């Protein structure tokens, strides 16, 4: 079958580690995800990323440590003030310790996110970080997922033991949220200035979003020098204002993951590509990060997502194995062979 000259040109650039332009990415995102061209795009991204990382993947954990009525008012989030059904709560030290123990039992958790609300108590959060640093494996990095923050707060978070931070200027920021895009980007710059690695994402992607919107969002991270990029589809959670628009398919999400992978792979600090929520199609299309979740989750009506949407460590290991990865990386970049024997050892075959 003949390949379009433009597609061939762009994929050749990717193979040769030549940065893709915005126009290149627009072309790729405009391809129909059910087409042969999309299949070629996805397989190319998967092959390049796996070759760069010795066919290895990383498992992350995220614990939502707080719940509150969030003034961010995000129309896709279950905690948004004005539509949430949750009441404020804090995870106890005992529960946090128990969850960290579960994530780190076999020493193969690369990084642990501690997620709180947009507005948070810094002193309380620093105590949570210190407890996590004491409880987690030495080879597990501690990461932050917090609201907009000043430089001094992020410096304190780094001193407490955090390596990196997840922060996003989301699609529709300022329209679908009560937050300002410039504040979101300012926090991302503060994070880099504080010496934190920056992890971001094109999110939350809905069926109504245009190719131009996706490209603009993707390149925020590409141009800032992130360590991880990702794609996340918006989940149509009942009760959230944007649920009426539905959600994109996992196939479309995998197509977007492939484009982000090819757009990001020439960023000097880039290491890994994420997808949320985890799905096999995306792991064949360039993604190599999987996330286990517990506690509060903005895409879940349950107070503890581990009892509903959130995947556990065992399911994460097994999905990575089924998707053909041969190694899991720890937070110190050492590798564990991912095979049937390891799945048996970690009780991950059920």
From TrEMBL:
InterPro entries: Aldolase_TIM, rSAM, rSAM_sf. GO terms for molecular function: catalytic activity; iron-sulfur cluster binding; metal ion binding. Keywords: Iron, Iron-sulfur, Metal-binding, S-adenosyl-L-methionine. It comes from the Bacteria. This is Radical SAM protein. The lineage of its organism: Bacteria, Bacillati, Bacillota, Clostridia, Eubacteriales.
């Amino acid at each position: 079958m003949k390949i379009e000259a433009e597609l061939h040109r762009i994929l050749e650039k990717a193979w040769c580690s030549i940065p893709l332009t915005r126009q290149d990415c627009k072309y790729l995102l405009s391809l129909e995800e059910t087409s042969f061209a999309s299949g070629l795009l996805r397989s190319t991204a998967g092959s390049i990323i796996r070759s760069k990382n010795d066919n290895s993947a990383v498992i992350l954990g995220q614990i939502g440590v707080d719940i509150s009525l969030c003034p961010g008012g995000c129309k896709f989030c279950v905690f948004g003030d004005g539509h949430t059904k949750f009441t404020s709560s804090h995870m106890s030290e005992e529960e946090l310790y128990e969850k960290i123990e579960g994530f780190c039992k076999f020493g193969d958790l690369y990084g642990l996110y501690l997620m709180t609300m947009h507005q948070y108590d810094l002193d309380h959060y620093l105590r949570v970080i210190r407890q996590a640093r004491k409880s987690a494996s030495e080879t597990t990095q501690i990461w932050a997922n917090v609201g907009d923050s000043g430089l001094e707060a992020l410096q304190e978070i780094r001193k407490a033991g955090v390596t990196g931070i997840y922060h996003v200027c989301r699609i529709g920021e300022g329209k679908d949220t009560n937050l300002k895009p410039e504040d979101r980007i300012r926090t991302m710059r503060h994070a880099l200035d504080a010496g934190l690695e920056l992890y971001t994402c094109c999110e939350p992607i809905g069926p109504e979003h245009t190719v131009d919107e996706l490209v603009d969002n993707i390149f925020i991270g590409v141009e800032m020098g992130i360590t991880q990029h990702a794609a996340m589809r918006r989940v149509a959670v009942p009760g959230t204002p944007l649920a009426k628009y539905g959600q994109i398919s996992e196939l479309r999400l995998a197509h977007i993951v492939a484009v982000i992978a090819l757009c990001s792979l020439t960023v000097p600090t880039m290491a890994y590509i994420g997808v949320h929520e985890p799905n096999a199609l995306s792991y064949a299309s360039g993604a190599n990060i999987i996330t286990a979740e517990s506690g509060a989750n903005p895409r879940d009506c349950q107070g503890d997502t581990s009892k509903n949407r959130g995947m556990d460590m065992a399911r994460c290991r097994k999905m990575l194995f089924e998707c053909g990865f041969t190694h899991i990386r720890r937070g110190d970049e050492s590798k564990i062979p991912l095979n049937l024997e390891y799945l048996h050892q970690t009780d991950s075959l059920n």
